[in-house]
Amino acid sequence: MTTAQRGRPGPRRTLTDEAIVTAALELLDRRGADAVSIRGIAAELGVAPNALYTYFPDKAAVLRAVADRLIGEYDLGALANPARPWRQRLHDLALSLRSRLLDHPGATAMLLGAPMDGPRALALGEALLAVVGEAGLDERDAARASYLLIVYVLGSIALEAAEVEPTRPAPPEAQRVAARKAAFDAVPATTYPLTAASADVMSRYITTEQFRWGLDRVIDGFAGPAAAAHQ
Amino acid sequence: MTTAQRGRPGPRRTLTDEAIVTAALELLDRRGADAVSIRGIAAELGVAPNALYTYFPDKAAVLRAVADRLIGEYDLGALANPARPWRQRLHDLALSLRSRLLDHPGATAMLLGAPMDGPRALALGEALLAVVGEAGLDERDAARASYLLIVYVLGSIALEAAEVEPTRPAPPEAQRVAARKAAFDAVPATTYPLTAASADVMSRYITTEQFRWGLDRVIDGFAGPAAAAHQ
DNA sequence: ACCTGAACACCGTTCAAGT
DNA sequence: ACCTGAACACCGTTCAAGT
């Protein structure tokens, strides 16, 4: 993945699409989202900034490729495995996507800033359609349901990442919850009584447990709670 | 809202927080998200760029204020009106938020780029808790459900806006669907058979009708489909 | 075909004035 | 207290070379 040297050599062929994406991710993790600039990536690769324009038409295309790489890190084999109940496979997908993306806070903007039409995003969508089909939905509702799932997962991650963004590695869950709790405790109970009273639950939105709860509600919504019973 | 001239005059007091937010929105609508820069806003107001730093600590704070303004445009009175069924009020809120935010594509990044902790966002959250409570959920589930709703609405809008972003006014729905349809028709049916077969449904994700469908599934998920029957 | 140097037209932010 | 001019350290992108 790091190199690969495709095509004929020409005068140099120092770079690869994949090498550029790797450098961008490296930079993202080490120095944060703002550091992911054309000039920064080029420096990371030891190359002049404008060299990247041989491989990508503009910065947005680079970011789209980074997003597609992150999405493609999930093993689609696990999603297709018919030995496991479909609901469980959807859980795995959603939870894995979430933790993987929260490992790179700052990547959220790349995921939501452009249509996810990369090859790996398409492959994921295809696999998702198959799984949701097993839930007994017809073609039309299967398509809608898989989109609903994507909306839920990406929406959740976006709202979680918004509270973290600047930091390079997302702090542990307990710490994020504590910070949120402090913010909600500062809400005046006189003007926002319900909010203040729910501060405890609210501060845990940002939690794996709550993410699971929402995920089950979404699945119940399109598959019916009955489906939860027989898994 | 445009001016207001609070506090003592001092040497000038030309600006207001609100005037700055207004100028930013003006710029957003007229020249797109990339034009919303500190320098751009300042030019819009006929002022030196660094003048804005008297009112906001940095650019991120300006963008957060813009996001709060957009959220606050919804009339909370309608949400609290006990004469209408709660489910209908949730629909109104979600649909109004969606169309309002799609009127400003490019605002999505501002909504998802930072925690929504502005005064108007808090007020909306408070009202939402009250409505969801009417659905018969206890305090804990009401908090979770209202967050789920927000995730759905903002997630949907983000994915929709991602396909539009650069354009200043979002093109009409029919045109957006057609563009999406063309993209899906280009998907190779041999590698992605389910995706290609569903191209028709997929291209309509971006549609008010589909948004309603997902919204109902989400509400069914936490309130039970039974609630749909008696409204 | 692929890379470079130099340049263009921008950014956000800071700092030392001025009033 | 509020605004300005000037500067700093950056951006993305383009263009005319060089190999």
From TrEMBL, chains A, B:
One annotated GO biological process: negative regulation of DNA-templated transcription
Single GO MF descriptor: DNA-binding transcription factor activity
Keyword Hydrolase: no
DNA-binding region in chain numbering: 37-56
PROSITE patterns, per database record: HTH_TETR_2
Location of the HTH tetR-type domain: 14-74
Taxonomic superkingdom: Bacteria
Matches recorded under SUPFAM superfamilies: Homeodomain-like, Tetracyclin repressor-like, C-terminal domain
Keywords recorded for this protein, A-Z: DNA-binding, Transcription, Transcription regulation
Keyword Thylakoid: no
PANTHER family to which the protein is assigned, alphabetical: HTH-TYPE TRANSCRIPTIONAL REGULATOR RUTR, TRANSCRIPTIONAL REGULATORY PROTEIN
Protein name: TetR/AcrR family transcriptional regulator
Species per Swiss-Prot/TrEMBL record: Streptomyces actinomycinicus
